Write the structure tokens for this entry.
Amino acid sequence: MDKFIEIIKLTLPSVAQGLIVTLELFAVTLVLSIPLGYLIALMQRSKARIPLLRWFLRWFAGGYTWLLRGTPLLLQIFFIYFGLPYIKIGTFQFPALNNMLACIIAFTLNYAAYFGEIFRAGIESIDKGQYECAKALGYTGSQTMRKIIIPQMVRLVLPPVSNETITLVKDTALVSVVALNDIMRETQLKVSALSNVSPFIVAAVFYLVLTLVLTIIFNRLEKKLCNY
């Protein structure tokens, strides 16, 4: 027992340092992917007056969603980090990215596709009669979305968004494969250095606490919005 406690004490500082990297990746991904996902949802439902433009926006958004949801996030990380520098278009050569930036790009693009589908489903679940009522009241399309559709959509999509957000916390462990010193990477290093699996327990506790905090936050948001 004393040895276990000693190992935990040796592990905590490193894993806590990795927690900072995990939280940075999580926060940046969430801030960037949610608005991008909403944009993708709007593109999928584009009502542009020019038929060719409308077709292109819907085709692009649909293809983007299919590609990013249909391939593993790990593969996307590898492609952006290892593959992009080998791609050359004319005289333009994609630069090599550091591991943090590559992971942020991969996570943002991937989660935007999932959030986009969630937002699209939320928008389409709103009764069409509300659009007609808004039009009768003289609301423009943007006013209708901002004042009527989005507030209702937020309440509808909050549960699946909360699930994706919690999944995001766990998916951050994938970045250890490109030597980004997150919780998992620091834990692996400690396991190797100490020849003991106890650091995995510390990592598990960190992830469980993070998911618990997010669960509490989203549960309170759901209750508040449902009582709105």
